[in-house]
Design brief:
By secondary structure, the protein is an all-alpha fold. The chain is about 50% helix and about 0% strand. A two-stranded parallel sheet has the order 1-2. The longest helix is centred in the C-terminal third of the chain and has 23 residues. The radius of gyration is 20 Å and the shape is globular.
């Protein structure tokens, strides 16, 4: 028995040593964008295994080149306490655990945007406890070394938004033939709504579930999305934006926007109905997440 315990102890210590040695140095992300992500590399590997091209659509753009509508839409859809937590929302994780326990299966992760970024950059879609533990520590490290603004900027640039489509700029050009800076509220809500499962809820071909999420997000944006976005202005050590403005690619900044009650209706998109007053999800349209973006 002692021999077995010793072997187990040595194995655990070896695993811990490996994790410490391979723990990512996230400090470089404060100044340099990631060259790739773990999720992108895993997707390319799978495409090659299927005998397909591993080309992905991805283009990095600065924070100021991403529409404030999309920034707000993602905040209200994915992490409404983003500016309050330090990488992990304990209450959200507790609620997700209780929902999963009742349903007898894992359908909700309770992950913050920071945790999602940690997973996308360095880990895998797996939900095993060890992976979640590593996600926790990487998320805390991201919060320690990066500003909230930088975390949101990286997340919006690398998150999956459809088959082979990564980041706000590539998604905006692919689905709407325009830069991410020019997205309307409805388009932003559509992209944000696809995040839990972008290969099922495809922005280019919205299903009933995605249309419901789009309307729900627009409703939330009108109510309190503007307040969340304004909080970024109070971030310590703000990063100045240096961009070149052209006639066809003009970034919208916070100072260009109207007050909260009109911000989400400034631009009209006739392809969808923007009038929704409820966040109650239809019981017959639930789609289980399969891509691990939560």
């Amino acid at each position: 028995m002692k021999r077995i315990l010793l072997i187990v102890l040595v194995a655990v210590l070896a695993w811990l040593a490996w994790e410490v040695l391979t723990f990512p140095d996230v400090s470089a992300l404060a100044k340099e964008p990631p060259k790739t992500t773990a999720f992108m590399e895993q997707r390319k590997k799978k495409l090659r295994a299927e005998g397909k091209s591993d080309e992905l659509k991805w283009k990095w753009v600065a924070y100021g080149r991403i529409s404030p509508y999309l920034r707000r839409a993602v905040l209200v859809a994915e992490d409404d306490s983003f500016y309050e937590h330090e990488g992990v929302d304990v209450d959200a994780m507790k609620e997700a655990f209780e929902r999963n326990w009742k349903r007898k299966k894992v359908t909700a992760g309770g992950s913050t945007i920071t945790q999602q970024l940690a997973k996308n950059l360095y880990l895998s879609p797996s939900r095993n406890p060890l992976r979640k533990l590593k996600e926790y520590f990487i998320a805390r490290s991201l919060e320690k070394h990066l500003s909230k603004k930088r975390i949101l900027e990286i997340y919006l640039n690398v998150v999956e938004l459809g088959e082979r489509v990564y980041g706000a700029e590539a998604a905006s050009r692919f689905y709407f033939a325009k830069p991410a800076s020019a997205l309307s509220p409805s388009e932003a809500a559509l992209l944000a709504g696809s995040l839990p499962n972008p290969r099922v809820m495809v922005p280019g071909k919205p299903n009933k579930r995605l249309r419901w999420r789009q309307r729900m997000i627009l409703s939330r944006m009108r109510r309190w999305g503007y307040l969340f976005e304004r909080q970024v202005l109070a971030e310590k050590k703000p990063e100045p934006e240096t961009t070149t403005t052209t006639a066809v690619d003009t970034a919208v900044t916070d100072t260009d926007l109207p007050p909260q009650d009109t911000a989400a209706t400034e631009t009209t998109d006739t392809s969808t109905n923007d009038t929704v007053a409820t966040d109650t999800i239809p019981t017959d349209t639930v789609t289980t997440d399969t891509t691990g973006t939560q």
